[in-house]
Amino acid sequence: MTGNVPDKSLPLLKVQNLSKFYGKNMGCHDINFELAEGEVIGVVGESGSGKSTLLKCIAGKINTTNGSVFFNSLYGFVDLCQCDELLLRQLTRTQIGYVTQNSVDGLRMNISAGGNIGERLMANGMRNYSQIRKIALEWLEKVEIETNRIDDLPTTFSGGMQQRLQIAANLVTDPKIILMDEPTSGLDVSVQARLIDVLRKLVSRLRLSMILVTHDLAVARMLSHRLYVMKEGKIVESGLSDQILDDPREPYTQLLVSSVLKP
Amino acid sequence: MSLQYNFAYLDEQSKKMIRRSILKAMAIPGFQVPFGGREMPLPYGWGTGGIQLTASLLGKEDCLKVIDQGSDDTTNAVSIKDFFKKTARIEITENTEDATIIQTRHRIPETPLTPQQIMVYQVPIPEPLQFIEPKRQENAKMHAFSEYGTMYVKLYEDIARHERIAMAFDYPVHVNGRYIMSPSPIPKFDNPKLHQSCAMHIFGAGREKRIYAVPPYTDVVSLDFEDYPFELEEWDESCAICGSDQTFLDEIITDDEGTRMFVCSDTEFCSRVRQKGKR
Known about the structure:
The complex is a heterodimer of chains A (about 260) and B (about 280). By secondary structure, chain A is α/β, with parallel strands linked by helices. Chain A is built from 10 helices and 10 strands.
């Protein structure tokens, strides 16, 4: 199966009629969109609008109620909602990165920074210590963490550093798509700026494909090419980032944009 | 004592249940088989898993040896031997060659095992993945899907911190190319003895209620990195009592001035070598 070349005529990711219900409550409903390779999509909306639910469905972290998420992998155009668990776990381990809002959920806090970065490499069969070490050092440098911190535990890192470490740990296996759930929330502005800076560099250098969920419109504008606005579990507006933020059409989007405080 | 116990303490139904689990464990080397662990008249952590295995395996003709810390006469070993002497009235020995069942906590005897022998281990923590992933359900999935890469994170951490793999006991092994198994608290010195061993090795964890096994002639490979291979500890000294230089040595401090001596941890082997030397 490996060694197949993904079909270039298909999008990298295709979300089709995706719905998730928590009992009677709706998480998200009838979501449709496509993501091309090298594209960064932002999903914005207020808290409880279903952004994170959508992302968790795409990442295979929770079971969907209905619909499909097709992923153009080395194994063909697979539906992540239908494929068997073995394949899903393999894909999420190698080709899909997932950066959580709280780095505690995404990192192993009792294992050194180097170990955290190396974990995905070792999970993919790398059994050479020096090689793992070398790659870990390279990645620390890429996310602007001092390389002498490689043997320190993530608990000794600041929030921003933990988040950057989480990004490195996800990108180390060169995933085809990276999913980010509010990567900047909980960080103060200057730290946010640095994280966005690192992300922008990585996005342009590695041509990352990314889905970025955030409630921070400024972050969405800085990073994403296209935006989807969610309200009560549905997509209410979509389009180019600048277009949506400068000239919002829907009343809800207008409200969102006008609610941002300007110092 | 007026009270009459069933042969080897456990009732026949319980023994049958445990034997069934043993057969399953033998059929799937390294796989942890759950079993209905019984309450034993000693606390968890003192070898309840091993003692249940031994009780189910014992026949009237069997000869039992019990080792604790390599020694035949430490508290745990003596009390377990006493227990089976009372409840099963079987022959008890210290001689490794005579024993048909050997229950142990820390050591595999230095004397080579024979195909007629069964090793029974007392295991405190049967799950080798627990260090890296505390969730039980996730552990089960990792075993099921052979997702063992993360196990190497433990080795990585050791090398990063100590510049070598510093685990000295309970060193994880890959059994029959399939399951990763914790060989209980045996020193890594004894790991190679499990590989292609002609004897049967059965592991019992009483508190966690798991049984697993290494059948005779099974591949048992200790985990390592390409550039940091599995290594055995070595001593500069040889045993101060019998003079062996191939055995696992214990360091014993003999006075307040820091005088120390190194002696075999397997006391039965040590005394036999010394007897031979005298003759």
